[in-house]
Amino acid sequence: MNKKGCTVTKMISERISIFVVLKKQEMIVYSPSITPRLQYISDLIGRELTGHPFQLTGEIEEYKNARGAKMNYSDRMVEEDELHLFPHSLLFEKDIQPQTTDCFETNGYKAFFKTGGGYPFDIFAASFYLLSRYEEYLPHSKDIYGRFAHEDSQAFKENFLNIPLINIWFQHFKEKLIQKFPSFNIQHSTFSFLPTYDIDEAYSYKHKGWWRRTGATIKDFLTEGLERVRLRKKVRKNKVDDPFDSYDWMDDLHKTYNLDPRYFFLVPGKTGRYDRNILPTEPALQSLIKRHSDKYKVGVHPSWQSGDEPSLLKKEIETIEKITKTKISSSRQHFIRFNLPETFRQLISAGIREDFSMGYGSINGFRASIASPFYWYDLEKDEQTSLLLYPFCYMDANSFYEEKQTAMQALEEMGRYYHEVKKVNGTFITIWHNTFLGTDEKFKGWREVYAQFIREVCRSN
Questions:
Q1: Looking at the chain, which terminus has fewer C-beta neighbours within 10 angstroms, N or C?
Q2: Is residue 10 part of a domain?
Q3: Is residue 18 situated within a structural domain?
Q4: Is 98 a member of any domain?
Q5: Tens of pLDDT along the chain (461 residues)?
Q6: Whether the predicted model's global pTM rises above the 0.70 cut
Q7: C-alpha angle with apex 316: 310 to 318, nearest 5 degrees?
Q8: Residue 12 forms part of a structural domain
Q9: Do 33 and 133 belong to one domain?
Q10: Do residue 199 and residue 216 come from a single domain?
Q11: Contacts 24+ apart (CB under 8 A), 416-420
């Protein structure tokens, strides 16, 4: 069988996607007040539409004298041939306060911050509101794990959690700009697929201390019977593979379809209720991490304990760096447990430059309403940071534990998200665990649907 490559995201700091230039006319944006919030979202939208930030000016004469496409972001018109966006107040504010985000429909999709001017809503302010996770700084409910409850999000309440709404807005905005300025410098991104994996529990039976083995054996006998105990013994005697040891199978899949995945390893200093991996002092885990770092990009999966004791984060990063002999600069929070702005500030302080936690650990969907990597904006400090966020929209554990789906239902759900991202030429990021892709009876059928999904995605790109 001929191998067919599957497009995978390649990231540089200033350019998120690969683009093809179609036109040659620049955009200048006028605003009487240029704030950090406006600069941030203007740069982001400019990069998404043209490959580089918009030219933002507060000088009206510079704006008038400029040639090419012109966008006026103020409460009064300046020229007849401009695109006038009447601004909402959000980007000119410095504090954090409740906002009125009543939704209405435009172009067949939800929008908010309805204003006057030449566009039905303030796409700059609305995009900033969702990307900055503004609502997560306001009073909100917590779920049982102390995380922002997805039920409190506007995307869930207004039923757009399952689509990358910002990317869709950008597509419609792009059409408006082309209509207004036929020679505008529009560029188009390409779809990319980035599979990622969390190694929370490297092995089911192997390489665990006698106290853990004894307790687990008793539990197996009481809950699943003697057959499970016999399987445990066979694994320990190397007569059969460990049920969670899916690494060779995953490697074969990646090799067949030319995939370049990311792996995130949990390396707590001690085990805990939510940190169940074997310890990094175990040669088996060290070997596993080193083996993967030799072939793929690996990152840290900050432990639950590090969420309570931030000083542990650097120790866990140093642990992986010592094993791999490489600099670790990427992460994903265990249980997708993070709080804004504290967690992301801690990551930056620890040297993390890329984080893959932007999604929910309770439901699949687009937490920030986007399917493109973007830089985190620290809303309290009112500044863009160096932390690049890679938003995911699908995780196997959400389908299995939270939504109680069968493997085939999960395949269908994953396919829906794939098609939504494909339509906007975004970056489709999935999270899977080695546990789901092994041979444990609990997850029977899941590795097969994952292989089917990979096959269909990579053959269609």
A1: N
A2: no
A3: no
A4: yes
A5: 444 456 444 443 333 333 333 335 689 999 999 999 999 999 999 999 999 899 999 999 999 999 889 999 999 999 999 999 999 999 999 999 999 999 999 999 999 999 988 999 999 999 999 999 999 999 999 999 999 999 999 999 999 999 999 999 999 999 999 999 998 888 888 999 999 999 999 998 887 754 455 545 456 545 555 566 566 667 676 777 899 999 999 999 999 999 999 999 999 999 999 999 999 999 999 999 999 999 999 999 999 999 999 999 999 999 999 999 999 999 999 999 999 999 999 999 999 999 999 999 999 999 999 999 999 999 999 999 999 999 999 999 999 999 999 999 999 999 999 999 999 999 999 999 999 999 999 999 999 999 999 999 998 88
A6: yes
A7: 115
A8: no
A9: yes
A10: no
A11: 416/162, 417/162, 417/364, 417/393, 418/193, 418/453, 418/457, 420/162, 420/163, 420/164, 420/371, 420/393
Instruction: Note whether 261 and 182 are same-domain residues.
Output: no
409 and 290 inside one domain:
yes
Beta strands in 75-129 (DSSP E): 83-84, 104-106, 109-111
* Domains identified in the chain, total number: 3
* Cα 436–chain centre separation: 20
229, 257: one domain: no
Q: How far is CA 175 from CA 41, 72, 122, 378, in A?
A: 19, 17, 16, 31
Q: Are residues 197 and 220 in the same domain?
A: no
Domain residues for the domain of 60 are 26-186
**Residue 341 preceded by cis peptide, ω within 30:** yes
Q: DSSP string of 5-66?
A: --------SS--S-EEE-----EEEE-SS--HHHHHHHHHHHHHHHSS--EEE--HHHHHH-
